[in-house]
Design a protein that fits this description.
alpha+beta, Beta-Lactamase, 53% helix, HATPase_C_sf
Amino acid sequence: MDSTWGSVSVLDAAGDILRAPLDEVLPRLSGALAGLIPHRAAAELATECAHSPFKTAGEAALAERITAAELDRLGPVVGVGRTWQGTATIGGAEHPVLALHSDRTTRGALLVLVREQAGPLDTAAIDTARALWDLVTSHLDRLAAEAVPGTLAQSRAAAGARARAIAEAGEAHTAVLTGLLGVLRSRGLDDGAARAAATELAVSALLDLRAEAERDQSVAEEPADQAFTRLEESLRPLLRHSEVRLALAPPGTARRLPADVAHAGRAIGRGLLLAVLEQDGVDRVHVGWRLDDTTLRVSVRDDGPGTLSYCSLGRRRVTERVEALGGRLDVDAVEGWGTTVTVSLPLGTKESAGAADPLAPLGARELEVLGELARGRRNRDIAERLHISESTVKFHVANILAKLGVGSRGEAAARFHAAA
């Protein structure tokens, strides 16, 4: 590849990188930049990527030694949105590097190229590298923010495997290092200098381990209230020039959500609002999140004609995103009154959520009907209290019996009381 690119070459390289599978993006980016900035390895720390924020590519002997902790320490030196050239500890040794810290995501993304030799780089080469890195980070951020079903499925599987590996490695390393400290601090050892040096190394390793665990938690999880604030910021521009009033009900808790669930909750909320706005006669929309031990519930309610359907939600890919996380979608439309859409996203696996809550298969409206049924009310009374037709109540009761696997209203009521 020539050291100077034309605009066509840059676009060709960008297209090749963006078409690549997620695990090939960094290797292709490294290959595209090799002619401009000769380097032995590339590493990234992209905090918007929930399932694999740290990646390396290049010479295996070097790339495999690079750690996320090394990049984490280099990040503040570079500064978000800035470029840095110099010598840094990468792969356990000093190397000349070029570091690019993109500001195209809310939490930043760092790319480090471990160069073949030191020396100043051409400004045009750095600008081209920065443009490609900004493009890549924007692309990956969009995949995360829009919660594409395939990406969500991959994220959930990989995040679970990574969490287990971190837990196992953390326990093993902590036990070993704690034991090492106990031995080195023993009064039976009289070589003070050796003990001091070894103790310093062990303490440093423990601190790195703790920092890595905390960083992985911050990448893999997001506080619920902050996640909802980001949703609010994305919704308000949609109604800036509209007469429709938007009411918001945040979850009211800083409890941490899995990052893929937070991404999906925002994407689904935006999709539902856009679907609601396609109706005529909508004056008010209510968007809320509710969090319990096993589930994030996203609800969107309007005062429109009550004609919203699963088809219109499918066009917005809402149903795909819900299915990708093993969630549930319920649409309660009452003609002339409006529509309430409730999406339930499990915080863990679908199996664990079901085991924790025997009523998990039921939708929001079905739970309301079951609650009234458990109080001994007849269909007509339930219809009046919930402002729905008696035939709709019968429809919900039939669904409740089928989903709970029971044969009578009495058994369903007993299941409700047991869960309560």
